[in-house]
Amino acid sequence: MANIEINIDDDTLLEAEKILLSLGMNVEIALNIFLRRVSLEKGFPMTMAASTPNLIDFSDFEDIGETSVYETKPFSRSNIKITPAMVEDLWRAFLRYVAGTGEINRLSTEVAETTGMSRGSAFIYLMVLANLVNGEPNTRVLKYKDLEFLMGNIKTQLGESKYQKAILSLKRSIPYWRENPWCFCR
């Protein structure tokens, strides 16, 4: 595994860290994603064009914690909140994965297209679910109400065995979450 050292303006880094925190990741994860996309797409993974950025009032985002330092910032990414209806659609897609009739990458794209949720968020939710039912630790967190809904569905629709694996997954995730409190953006 290679290590990269970069120099970046402190204000830029602080702003990026807070935005990435609201997305459930840190700078290292974001840079890994970026470099993987460069590799996969054999080029820069986004359009490099001048445009007028959207203005987003960060006080609208209840789950990023303290927002007093933000005011209104230019930002061009869509920030659609994940709704209970989206989580229900995710669950239905996940049932296809469990049944062996869907693959997570394809399902996350379908969920994004049908619900308006970002593909990245759909992918994260589906991976968290897969880790839960397999008893594997997670490095991501979900909003508590979403996790509660999904755990209830695991228990009632997938059975006690999968539910116990999900409990084990949560227990196995705790050490990582303790070491990386930035992942608690919800």
The tally of strands reads 2
Strand content: under 5%
Major β-sheet annotation: 2 strands, antiparallel
Give me the side-by-side strand order of the main sheet.
1-2
Question: What integer is the average pLDDT?
Answer: 79
First-residue to last-residue Cα separation: 30 Å
| Secondary-structure element series | HHEEHHHHH
Specify the overall morphology.
globular
Low-pLDDT ranges: 49-77
Count of alpha and pi helical runs: 7
Tell me the structural class: mainly alpha
Q: Any idea how many domains?
A: 2
Radius of gyration: 18 Å
- Provide the helix percentage: 55-70%
Mind explaining what this structure looks like?
This protein has helices spanning 10-22, 27-41, 84-98, 104-115, 119-134, 144-158, 160-179, and strands at 55-57, 72-74. By secondary structure, the chain is mainly α. The chain is globular, with a radius of gyration of 18 Å. The chain folds into 2 domains: 10-74, no CATH class; 84-183, no CATH class. Helix 5 crosses helix 7. The protein starts with 9 loop residues before the first helix and ends in a 7-residue tail after the last helix. It contains 7 helices and 2 strands; from the N terminus they run ααββααααα. Residues 49-77 have low confidence and may be disordered. Helix content is 57%, strand content 3%. A two-stranded antiparallel sheet has the order 1-2. InterPro entries: Arc_rbn_hlx_hlx. It comes from Paenibacillus hexagrammi. This is Addiction module antitoxin, RelB/DinJ family.
